[in-house]
């Protein structure tokens, strides 16, 4: 149940001997624990609505803390990952990308995520390339619908598809990247055969790519 803001959900009466339902405080505590355990933010683009819909948490608390610090301080020259410890530099770059994207600085966000895309941690690098691809694809869609230059639209779409493929090369079971690449190929087909343009999915999970439930907000 998702309570409406400003109201408390009604509770059905309990019968004698029936244990009381959990208090709202207990539910709130559980929700807080889930938030503490939630992982790294990844930008999920609602491409059908031409907007970034929100942030998907997909990694550990250390990156969460760094992202929160970047968002609180704002990204810019003073918070570049060059000053971070070498083993934390990719995480700092990833966090900078989140802060820059939140501030609407797309080029800076992409530059930060491209740095994070060189991380030795394949999962972190794949998420960085996924975020990069989402921004490029969103730009291409907006530009095409506004009647922008075809060459620039095509170039942005190619950058998006390349970034999705980089994410999948690092993490073949990155299903959001696989799904978004499928959509990108529908909207901006490759010159050659599209069926060969999508990296093969791991055999045991291949059916997931056809499941409507895994649409992530895409049409």
Automatic annotation (TrEMBL):
<protein>
    <submittedName>
        <fullName>MxaK protein</fullName>
    </submittedName>
</protein>
<feature type="region of interest" description="Disordered">
    <location>
        <begin position="1"/>
        <end position="23"/>
    </location>
</feature>
<dbReference type="InterPro" id="IPR011990">
    <property type="entry name" value="TPR-like_helical_dom_sf"/>
</dbReference>
<keyword id="KW-0472">Membrane</keyword>
<keyword id="KW-0812">Transmembrane</keyword>
<keyword id="KW-1133">Transmembrane helix</keyword>
<feature type="transmembrane region" description="Helical">
    <location>
        <begin position="37"/>
        <end position="58"/>
    </location>
</feature>
<feature type="compositionally biased region" description="Pro residues">
    <location>
        <begin position="10"/>
        <end position="22"/>
    </location>
</feature>
């Amino acid at each position: 149940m998702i309570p409406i803001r400003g109201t408390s959900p009604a509770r059905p009466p309990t019968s004698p001997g029936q244990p009381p339902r959990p208090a709202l405080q207990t539910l709130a505590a559980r929700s807080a624990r889930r938030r503490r355990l939630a992982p790294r933010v990844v930008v999920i683009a609602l491409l059908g609505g031409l907007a970034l819909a929100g942030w998907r948490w997909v990694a550990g608390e250390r990156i969460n803390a760094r992202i929160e610090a970047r968002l609180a301080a704002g990204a810019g020259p003073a918070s570049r990952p060059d000053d971070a410890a070498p083993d934390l530099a990719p995480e700092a770059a990833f966090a900078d990308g989140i802060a820059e994207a939140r501030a609407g600085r797309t080029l800076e966000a992409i530059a930060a995520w491209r740095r994070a895309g060189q991380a030795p941690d394949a999962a972190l690098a794949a998420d960085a390339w996924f975020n990069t691809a989402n921004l490029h694809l969103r730009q291409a869609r907006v530009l095409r619908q506004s009647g922008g230059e075809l060459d620039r639209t095509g170039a942005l779409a190619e950058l998006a598809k390349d970034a999705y493929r980089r994410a999948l090369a690092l993490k073949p079971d990155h299903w959001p990247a696989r799904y978004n690449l499928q959509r990108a190929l529908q909207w901006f087909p490759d010159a050659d055969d599209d069926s060969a343009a999508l990296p093969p999915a791991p055999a045991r999970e291949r059916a997931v790519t056809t499941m409507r439930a895994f649409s992530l907000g895409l049409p």
